[in-house]
Design the sequence.
């Protein structure tokens, strides 16, 4: 490890590794610091991605694909379900291997990686701009200098705050999550199951995603406003005991997902935020792997450009490019989330019933969405924005 | 500001170090390492958002303050850890 780099990336999740990869491939010297002992572990995630999303960055490889899925099943509070027709395929990942592969891609471009390296503060110049980080590396305090800090430090991000950006997630938007990997169960390998309703996950959803033979990733997220009344782990334990009473629990983990709009600023004082740290999460689905990688890619590229131009003010381009690529969509999705969160169990049941009356070929996600619109006309305006822009 | 310290407390050993509490903390008052966590007492305003956010129910709110905390949940090492980084 050197004393000085062009870019220091804090956090080696998918967003951090992708930022490091693209910054390094554009010629920047890059150091990536991971607070945990291992890259890719522990896994706090539902692990589902679309084929189209993932191939932008890496060719699908059986070693990190636990299951290939072709169907969604949406289960209404009354137990009735609808399976929309889908065109594409998706994957349930083995994140502990997937994240490793992404870090390897960054390393192949020349990124240095150090684990068990906890960043606890920024080094700043007299104007308050970041010129490096203070870290505790294997229990030794070190100071490392750089030109740009990429904060990919996840839901628990603090780097942005130190740079003067308010990254606090409102409790209405933070999803308090519990997740298990369970085995010894019967699970269809090509279907993603989503359960809705006040009994399983009020205001959010519970997922059962196949992870290879007899195994599934089961989890749920609920808004902290709801979690106040009953915690995520209680909901999950009740569901698993009822639905899979004899399951072996292989992992059992907590998490948080910022289902908000992108932070109002994602660039300040030579620091850029990517991934969950920037709230680059689809607010409806809570999915953040691909969107975080897109943020990481744009951020890494812009950081390298700013350095080669010797003009750090160029970093603002990252914010513009992100907003143009996905940020605006997430704003729209956020408004849709607000509308969906207000659905009562009765409304969800009636949406399911109406969807089941649709002819098979019209039973697409879009078709079901149209049905949902009849129940909530105020969503129409928000949806219209998605299609006219 | 004078306030009884340690009204918010994290049960060591039960915490999963997921960071959900850090994400909602408006005061940047939680220090989280791989398997260490501590509340930075000077910054904490006892708003309780972390208590609500915790998926595991390991953060506790004690009206009585520090004196009445059960011994098993005092975590001096972690508090020293938060201070050592300043």
Sequence:
């Amino acid at each position: 490890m050197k004393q000085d780099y062009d870019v220091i990336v804090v956090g080696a999740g998918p967003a951090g590794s992708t930022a490091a990869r693209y910054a390094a491939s554009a010629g920047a010297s890059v150091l990536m610091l991971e607070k945990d002992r291992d890259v890719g572990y522990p896994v706090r995630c539902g692990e589902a991605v679309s084929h189209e999303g993932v191939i932008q960055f890496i060719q699908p490889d059986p070693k990190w694909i636990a299951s290939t899925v072709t169907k969604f099943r949406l289960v209404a509070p009354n137990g009735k379900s609808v399976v929309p027709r889908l065109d594409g395929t998706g994957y349930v990942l083995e994140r502990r291997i997937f994240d490793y592969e992404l870090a390897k891609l960054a390393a192949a471009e020349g990124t240095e990686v150090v684990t068990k390296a906890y960043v606890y503060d920024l080094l700043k110049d007299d104007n308050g701009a970041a010129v490096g980080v203070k870290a505790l590396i294997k229990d030794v305090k070190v100071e490392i200098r750089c030109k740009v800090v990429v904060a990919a430090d996840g839901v628990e991000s603090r780097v942005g705050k130190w740079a003067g950006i308010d990254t606090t997630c409102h409790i209405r938007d933070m999803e308090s999550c519990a997740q298990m990997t369970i085995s010894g169960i019967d699970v269809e390998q090509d279907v993603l199951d989503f359960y809705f309703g006040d009994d399983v996950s009020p205001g959010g959803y519970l997922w059962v995603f196949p992870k290879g033979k007899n195994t599934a990733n089961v989890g749920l997220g609920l808004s902290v406003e709801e979690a106040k009344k009953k915690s995520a782990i209680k909901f999950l334990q009740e569901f698993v005991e009822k639905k899979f009473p004899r399951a072996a629990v292989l992992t059992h983990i907590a998490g948080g997902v910022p289902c908000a709009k992108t932070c109002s600023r994602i660039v300040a004082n030579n620091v850029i935020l990517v991934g969950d740290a920037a709230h680059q999460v689809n607010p409806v689905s809570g999915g953040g792997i691909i969107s975080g990688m897109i943020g990481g890619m744009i951020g890494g590229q812009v950081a390298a450009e700013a350095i080669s131009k010797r003009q750090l003010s160029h970093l603002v381009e990252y914010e513009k490019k992100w907003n143009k690529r996905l940020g605006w969509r997430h704003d729209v999705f956020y408004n849709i989330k607000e509308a969906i969160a207000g659905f009562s169990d009765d409304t969800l049941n009636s949406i399911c019933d109406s969807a089941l009356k649709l002819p098979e070929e019209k039973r697409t996600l879009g078709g079901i969405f149209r049905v949902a619109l009849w129940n909530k006309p105020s969503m129409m305006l928000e949806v219209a924005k998605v299609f006219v822009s | 500001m004078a306030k009884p310290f340690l009204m918010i407390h994290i049960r060591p050993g039960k915490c999963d170090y997921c960071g959900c509490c850090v994400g909602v903390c408006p005061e940047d008052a939680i220090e989280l390492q791989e398997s260490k966590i501590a509340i930075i007492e000077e910054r904490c305003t006892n708003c309780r958002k972390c208590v609500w956010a915790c998926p595991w129910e390991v953060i506790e709110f004690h009206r009585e303050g520090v004196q009445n905390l059960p011994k098993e949940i005092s975590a001096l090492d972690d508090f020293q850890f938060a201070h050592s980084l300043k």
